[in-house]
Automatic annotation (TrEMBL):
N-terminal signal peptide: none
Organism: Streptomyces cellulosae
Designated name of the protein: Alpha/beta fold hydrolase
Keyword Hydrolase: yes
Entry keyword set: Hydrolase
Residue ranges of every copy of the AB hydrolase-1 domain listed in the record: 47-269
Pfam family, one: Abhydrolase_6
Entry superkingdom: Bacteria
Keyword Hydrolase assigned: yes
GO molecular function, one term: hydrolase activity
Length: 279
């Protein structure tokens, strides 16, 4: 495993980078137009970005902008956040409608989803990129991996909302409390942006965090990993452990869990490293 460490940028350069990323409007492909948008075999792989819990597709905006400027077709996919099996099936349907090779990128719980979705698609999915993400093995859950190592304070920052399903069953969605969102999830994101992220966060089904993975595509597909040292959601020790186990090409960066928002240039650079290996 090759490991690179990227230090935190100066406060001025970090703020300029975030401001530029936030200020740009990104036209990401929508699901109905994916097949039509890629009507011929692209010369470069299509990058498919999968967000995680407590975020949405807009969390990739700064990364999308940079990848599109570099000439890559990009799809920032919606994640239902209902459970690894359901979410992986949904993501796989997105991949099935893209012509040519694909690089799958997952943030946080999105790593669990891409690991399951890509299994058996080695001929099409050429690389997996994990951004402050889970790389579970079969039989492991996101919650189990989080609790395996000290360092996460997520349990103190969340609240759940119970609901009744149409069939009469019971369920629960989990949110990060708005007043704790920035400190917990996005400490290096400007306060105004963090407030918007907190207001627009997507809840995850509580059961999704306990559902065990049934497949681990990183065993057969080359992988890259970005480890975030100031992460309060997934302990840095857990990220290092999973990355090493997968033999991922690993970069370590001083950033919060919301690294795709606070450091989009670093994230895009790692995705491009993976994409350039695709032939």
């Amino acid at each position: 495993m090759r490991i690179t460490h990227l230090a935190r940028p100066s406060r001025r350069s970090a703020l300029l980078g975030v401001t530029a990323a936030v200020g740009l409007s990104v036209a990401a492909a929508t699901l109905p137009g994916v097949a039509g948008a890629v009507s011929h075999r692209p010369t470069r792989p299509t990058i498919v970005l999968e967000h995680g819990a407590f975020a949405d597709a807009s969390s990739w905006d700064g990364v999308v902008t940079r990848l599109q400027r570099a000439g890559y077709p990009v799809v920032s996919a919606a994640n239902p956040l209902r459970g690894p099996a359901t979410d992986a099936a949904y993501l796989r349907s997105v991949v099935d409608h893209i012509d040519g090779p694909v690089v799958l990128v997952g943030h946080s719980y999105g790593g669990t989803v891409i690991s399951q979705a890509a299994a058996g698609l080695e001929g099409k999915v050429k690389a997996l990129v994990y951004i402050a993400a889970f790389l579970p093995d079969t039989g492991e859950s996101s919650l189990g991996l989080t609790n395996k190592f000290p360092g996460s304070t997520l349990g103190q920052a969340i609240e759940s909302v119970n609901y009744t399903l149409p069939d009469g069953g019971q369920g629960a969605d989990v949110y990060i409390k708005p007043e704790k969102f920035r400190d917990q999830f996005a400490a290096d994101v400007p306060a105004d942006k963090a407030r918007l992220m907190a207001a627009g966060q997507r809840p995850i089904a509580a059961a999704a965090l306990e559902e065990k993975s049934t497949k681990a595509a990183w065993k057969t597909i080359p992988s890259w990993s970005l480890v975030t040292t100031e992460d309060l959601n997934i302990p840095v020790a857990a990220q290092r452990y999973m990355s090493a186990r997968a033999g991922a090409r690993t970069t370590v960066i001083d950033a919060s869990h919301a690294v795709s928002v606070s450091r989009p240039e670093a994230v895009a650079r790692i995705v491009e490293q993976a994409a350039r290996t695709v032939r």
